[in-house]
Amino acid sequence: MSLQGKVALVLGVANQRSIAWSIARALAQEGARLALTYQNERLRPNVEELASTIGAATFACDVSSDQDVAALMDWVGREMGGLDMLVHSVAYAPREGLEGRFVETPRDAFRIALDVSCYSLVALCRAAEPLMKARGGGSVLTMTYYGSEKVMPGYNLMGVAKAALESSVRYLAYELGASGIRVNAISAGPINTLAARGVSGFTEMRRTHAERAPLRRNIEVDEVGRTAAFLLGPGASGITGEVIYVDAGYHVMGV
Question: Which one of the listed residues 38, 92, 146, 155 is annotated catalytic?
Answer without folding.
Answer: 155
